[in-house]
Amino acid sequence: MIKQLLPVVLIASTTLVMGQTVPKPKTTAKPAAKQTAVAAPIDLNKPIPTDPAVKVGRLPNGLTYYIRKNVEPRNRAELRLVVRAGSVLETDEQQGLAHFMEHMEFNGTKNFPKNELVNVLQSSGIRFGADLNAYTSFDETVYQLPVPTDSQRVFRQAFQILEDWAHNATIDPAEIEKERGVVLEERRLGRGAGQRMRDKYFPVLLNGSRYAERLPIGTEQVLTTFKPETLRQFYKDWYRPSLMAVIAVGDFDVKQVEGIIREKFGRIPEPANPKPRTEYTIPGNKDTKVAIVTDTEQPNTIVQVIYKREGVKDKTLNDLREGVKRGLFNTMLGNRIQELTQQADPPFLGGYSNYSDFLGNLDAFTSIAVAKEGNVERAIRAVLNENARVKQFGFTPTELDRAKQEFLTGVEQAYSERNKTRSASYVDEYVRNFTDKEPYTSIDFYYTFLKKEMPGIKLTEVNELVDQFIHNDNRAVIVMAPEKDKDKLPTVEQIIGYIDDAGKGLTAYEDKTIDAPLLTKQPTPEPVVSTKQIKDIGVTEWTLKNGVKVVLKPTDFKNDQILFSGTSFGGTSLYDLNDYTSARFASTVTAMGGTGAYNQVQLGKFLAGKQVSVFPYISELNEGVSGSTAPKDLETALQLLYSYFTQPRKDANVVKGFLSNQRSALQNQINTPTPARVFQDTVQVTLGANNPRRQPLQPADLDKIDLDKSLKIYQERFANAGDFTFFFVGNIDEAKLKPLVEKYLGGLPSTGKTENFRDLGIRIPSGQINKTVYKGVDPKATVQLVYSGDLSWSPENTTQLDALAEVLEIKLIEQLREQESGVYGVSASASYSKNPVPRYTFRISFGCGPENVDKLIAKTQELITNLKTKGADPADIAKFKAETRRETELQLKDNQFWLGYLQNQFVNGDAPDEVLREDQQLNKVTVESTKATANKYLGANYAKFVLMPEKKVEAGK
Fold this sequence. Notes:
- The chain is an alpha+beta fold.
- 40% of the residues lie in helices and 18% in strands.
- The protein has 32 helices and 23 strands.
- The strands form four sheets. It has a seven-stranded mixed sheet, sandwiched between helices. A six-stranded mixed sheet has the order 1-2-6-3-5-4, sandwiched between helices. A five-stranded mixed sheet has the order 7-11-8-10-9, with helices on both faces.
- Strand 4 (133-136) and strand 5 (141-148) form a beta hairpin.
- Helix 1 packs across helix 8, helix 21 (634-646) runs parallel beside helix 26 (734-744) and helix 27 packs across helix 28 (853-870).
- The longest helix has 25 residues, at 795-819.
């Protein structure tokens, strides 16, 4: 797997905003240890203390290890092998082989020949791809292995796997030849407009550095022709103890793990004369580098202005304090730029400015704008003017106060969850410490430090950062645009002019806030009139006098988390086609207005420092709300929920601006339809039986939205809370929750009626469908095979469908990837729903070369036929059961799982405690049951969709 290369590309999407989001600060704070009170002034010259809960050691051969005991989740551990070697170390003849070596580690080692490693782990309930994985970047390769610790055999075996990866890869020539096709398919999947433009602008952005010449995926020529000895040489040179770290975090005995690491990794020899590990850098440039790149498949015009500077390496407490200042700066500037979208004619489709790490030795302050209707000048000037406004006038005291509240709230949340933090969160810290020397400290220390230092951070200090971030040297500008707009784009000189002239005629930012209660009128409480206990799953059900039902499950999985949702039947299905678009956007455009006296921007300011998130929605069959909060902010969250029900607010200017941006984004997609978009639209329309409600959204559809009608529909959908069921999961004190529920949910309006959705009759057409789409210039194809039909709704049938998907996917990976070398990834998945009528959809998807489409579809059908005649391999069934049981163990300790599960069970009218009978259902999965399921569900209702490159027209025809 290739790690994302650079966090500098913003993709404009038409995803609809369902409500306001509360910005969360990025922090480096993470859990552990015991709090120490700091009474004296902090000596900022002292080094940042490392977290004492981490056992760090170095073996005589140079290998580093990090060990930490952590019991979340229980009976699990996260293991990593980190190799400080990536694509930047490749020779010309090795381009792509750092990544190829990562692949070969799963294709045979001393103790796990061929594909046995994957087979062994799957049998232990560890999924390939989802759990077991690896990635290669410019500077490192990281192998990821989450394992159970309640089996000593499996746990010790996991360390044997890590040791084999470190020095026992067999690199069999026969396996190399098979894996060539897989890696070339991964490379093929990455091809497209983004890759073609990146190949042009990377040398400019990275100033001709080694990084510009060593993309991890490599070159097709090398991947096709390299000799096994060339790969072995890379492995020999760079997979050595002094460049490796083993990381283990989880529910285990630290001394035992240290002993295993010393035993297994201490015997790996360090080369007598190791090859020097060069630390490559990206040189600076005195001028401004500009790259203007276009492509026939690029739908949007995106402008990036990148101010590069030497990277900040945190070592002292003063560095830690400086990091806080940068976080505050990013938050305040981000909020200002977001406000620009809250006007009748926003200057861009999307934009942001942000300081962060970049690549190699550099950090960067990056400003990005997605141009509206191709207007590069207006888009980039708008973002750069906000940067300049800070430079000229600075931020305001009230902005800084809110940013501090948000930052501290995020760290407080991490502190409160210090004994509930998952092992995977810690592991990433230690990876960064080894690869980038990024410090790791305990959340206890950081929280104490922050409380001491945050009040003393002055506005002038934060304002001065802009002079460090924005400068005339070491700049790069990247413009990516549709090929059809090439002649309309500004010149290099004009672009530099936009940047240099930014900030003329500006006035100071005005921080507009209001001081008003969220609720203009307090609700009249209605009491709980009945209580029902579902003791085997720890659930209580309340019914209120106004008809509202409340299902709650108190948990101790998180200290500072309460998740909630509410739903009722109805949705857009109740509205005729003439009102469909207004209904479809009703919750979106209404929530954009804010609520009560607060517009959306003011509401965000009001909620600063509070852990409150509430989103109203209207879907096809339902309307409802979803949200999250902390126990201390629960009442505010319920007030906001009540307000969204009873105080919707219209903001015509914000909606006008939103629709204007949506129109522009949709028009871009029409003007430059990407292959993926055309293909997915075809699949959607076909499977939707060409129903008007399953058509791709068009700019003209937005003209049908009547804001007043949308507001009326929203009010209708939320006028009767009496047929709503609300769900609360998390750190709930029932005694404290009950009066709040009685006030804010019991006080909601109710008509006493119960609504239902309307079955619109939209079904996937029966029979066989065969559609091929010809779109795109790259030699790549996409295949989707879809089976569908009616379903007899029961836990047994849905479990059998899940099993069928898993056993088929295992065989598809074995056949299409490992044997045929024809795909990088392939998936088989089953989905099902009870409403409006019970139906299932079974999909098989993969990408491949156009020349292999027919062959790979035929192989897929062979596997399906084999399932129908013989049933699944017993070993594959055992893998499905092991994986499912392991997954369920984790889910049963997860608030998000319980919220979704309980809502589904109640909405579908299914037994709330069905999850406790999962083992009974799994035991019914047998060779014969998979055979019967394949024959029943992989039948006559079959749709085949293929995306192929455009056919080239011969000259003269």
